[in-house]
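User: Hi! I have a protein structure encoded as tokens and I'd like to know what sequence might fold into it. I'm fairly new to this, so please keep things simple.
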């Protein structure tokens, strides 16, 4: 795929899709619908590399997100369609949206009106958790799913490729501690090669470092997963289900924190 791989989502509200683990999920994309905006440039991002550009449509306005979500939920409710979760995902990092905290407030209110039993989930790369208003918004949702792909600085930089030189493993682990008992830490397990450099975050050294980080953070749950779709870096390898289960059992036994395989 390489440079030809581009964004997945061409609208602000997408789905619903049927997720094996989450059930019926309606997606919200707070990024452009014809480009990508992210504070990471992950080798495995199914929406492609940041080099594709931000497109021309810009970020959806708060009022647009609210009206489009309300119209969709109203339609689904009238049809008697089920809904288990509303998930913030899409073409980049949702917490980069300048109105993210207000959009979360709107979403919770609309959810309560039409589908009070549905959960609200946010998939975030953890780069914006240092902004108090973003952190407070994340604390309000049902599933605050925060990325930590490696607890070793070099590996994190190889896999996630953060835009900010000031972003570091030590800093993010410290920042993630504010979600003790509530946050869900999500770790992508993979191995492969990029630009001639071998990458593998499943080694004993990597897992030991992750375990120490998880113990400091004390999330309510740890979610580990591997590749599911094509990736912009083609030389990445999916970690098999049995190996993931074994890694999960080890992490759970040492930390005492529930581990799920996504």
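Assistant: Happy to help. Inverse folding works backwards from shape to sequence: for each of the 262 positions I chose a residue that suits the local structure. Here it is:
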């Amino acid at each position: 795929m390489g440079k030809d791989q581009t964004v997945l989502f061409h609208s602000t509200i997408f789905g619903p899709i049927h997720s094996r683990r989450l059930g019926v999920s309606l997606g919200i994309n707070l990024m452009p619908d014809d480009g990508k905006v992210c504070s990471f440039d992950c080798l495995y991002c199914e929406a492609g590399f940041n080099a594709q550009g931000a497109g021309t449509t810009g970020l959806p306005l708060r009022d647009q997100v609210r009206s489009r979500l309300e119209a969709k939920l109203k339609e689904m409710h009238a049809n008697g369609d089920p809904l288990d979760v509303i998930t913030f995902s899409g073409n980049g990092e949702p917490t980069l949206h300048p109105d993210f905290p207000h959009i979360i407030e709107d979403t919770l209110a609309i959810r309560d009106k039409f589908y009070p039993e549905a959960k609200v989930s946010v998939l975030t790369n953890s780069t914006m958790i240092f902004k108090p208003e973003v952190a407070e918004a994340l604390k309000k949702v049902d599933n605050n799913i925060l990325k930590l792909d490696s607890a070793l600085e070099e590996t994190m930089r190889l896999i996630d490729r953060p835009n900010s030189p000031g972003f570091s493993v030590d800093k993010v682990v410290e920042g993630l501690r504010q979600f003790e008992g509530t946050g869900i830490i999500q770790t992508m397990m993979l191995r492969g090669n990029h630009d001639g450099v071998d990458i593998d975050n499943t080694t004993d050294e990597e897992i030991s470092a992750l375990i120490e980080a998880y113990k400091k953070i004390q999330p309510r749950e740890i979610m580990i997963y591997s590749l599911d779709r094509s990736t912009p870096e083609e030389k990445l390898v999916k970690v098999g289900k049995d190996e993931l289960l074994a890694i999960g059992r080890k992490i759970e036994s040492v930390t005492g924190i529930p581990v799920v395989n996504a």
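A useful reference point when you look it over: The first helix runs from residue 62 to 79. Feel free to ask if any position seems puzzling.
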